[in-house]
Amino acid sequence: MSFVEIDHVSHTYFTPEAAFEAVHNIQMTVEEGEFISLLGPSGCGKTTLLSLIAGLMTPTYGTIYVDGQHPKNLKNTIGYMLQQDYLFPWKTIEQNVLLGLKVMKQLNETSKANALSLLEQMGLKNVRNQTPRQLSGGMRQRVALVRTLAVNPKLLLLDEPFSALDYQTKLKLEDLVFQTLKSFQKTAILVTHDIGEAICMSDRIYLFSKGPGRIHKVFEVPDELRSISPLEARNHLSFTPFFQEIWKELESLENG
């Protein structure tokens, strides 16, 4: 069994007046240690699928297994990182980082030391006693990543975590997250609107069609791009033609 198995999953939102199908008949597998991206037009159900994988909702049809279990039955296996950092402004950076461990009753001297070591690896050793408002957006997102990794999840779900950042910071964080997840051998699923980001961070890209979201096409990222850092990948000779191939498919979906 694959680490993540999504088997004929559809999901419908119901209101008193109507029903809206967000995703339809999604079939997908993710192996342990893989990094995949979900790409597609706005409203194609990418974030809905991420929420289903996280166990925040139950699919209307179909089943999802993560590490052989239904997501709702899992503890500490899935980490979720969003566009906004959601740090508590009245707590210090150290307190924010340790919050997940505390909530899950995993906070002890060993787990605290590991979390603070990770904070240091992210270049944030000197800000542990500061508050979020004293940090830049990029630094806050690094804190959010440390908080997510501190509980040692096997699967990391990333919902456009770099979209609110300036371009230079975004590129730096792409490299940092890529290298961090590879070194910790984490499995990751990224939702993004950025083709370049999907290419330079992923092993495989799922392109979704809109209304309701279906898997339109799957792209395997070339080995020569997968084996180098995101910044290096953006400057590789293979990057532009692969970008254009995905761009044409995405344009056909948005104009169709």
Task: Please characterize this protein's 3D structure.
The structure is a single chain. With 256 residues, this protein is α/β, with parallel strands linked by helices. It has two domains: 34-58 and 68-77 and 153-256, 3-Layer(aba) Sandwich (Rossmann fold); 85-152, no CATH class. It contains nine helices and nine strands. The protein has helices at 46-54, 93-103, 109-121, 137-150, 167-183, 195-201, 223-226, 230-234, 239-255, and strands at residues 4-14, 19-30, 35-39, 61-66, 78-81, 155-159, 187-192, 204-209, 214-220. α5 links the parallel β6 (155-159) and β7 (187-192). α3 runs antiparallel to α4 (137-150). It is globular and about 50 Å long.
Spell out the blueprint of helices and strands.
Elements: E1 4-14, E2 19-30, E3 35-39, H1 46-54, E4 61-66, E5 78-81, H2 93-103, H3 109-121, H4 137-150, E6 155-159, H5 167-183, E7 187-192, H6 195-201, E8 204-209, E9 214-220, H7 223-226, H8 230-234, H9 239-255
Parallel strand pairs: 3-7, 3-8, 5-6, 6-7
Antiparallel strand pairs: 1-2, 1-4, 8-9
Second rung of CATH, namely the architecture of the largest domain: 3-Layer(aba) Sandwich
**CATH superfamily of the largest domain, please?**
P-loop containing nucleotide triphosphate hydrolases
* The level-1 CATH class of the largest domain: Alpha Beta
Reading side by side through the largest sheet, how are the strands ordered? 5-6-7-3-8-9
Compute the number of helices: 9
User: How does the overall form come out from the CA principal axes?
Assistant: globular
Number of strands: 9
One letter per element, helices H and strands E, the order comes to EEEHEEHHHEHEHEEHHH
Give the uncertain stretches in residue-range form: none
Q: In which range does the helix fraction lie?
A: 25-40%
What fold name goes in the CATH topology slot of the largest domain? Rossmann fold
- Terminal CA distance: 36 Å
Average predicted local confidence, pLDDT: 90
- Structural category is alpha/beta
Q: What can be said about the biggest beta sheet?
A: 6 strands, mixed
- Proportion of residues in β-strands: 15-25%
The figure for the number of domains is: 2
Q: Gyration radius, to the nearest Å? A: 18 Å
Keywords: ATP-binding, Nucleotide-binding, Transport
GO molecular function, one term: ATP hydrolysis activity
Pfam families: ABC_tran
Organism: Bacillus smithii 7_3_47FAA
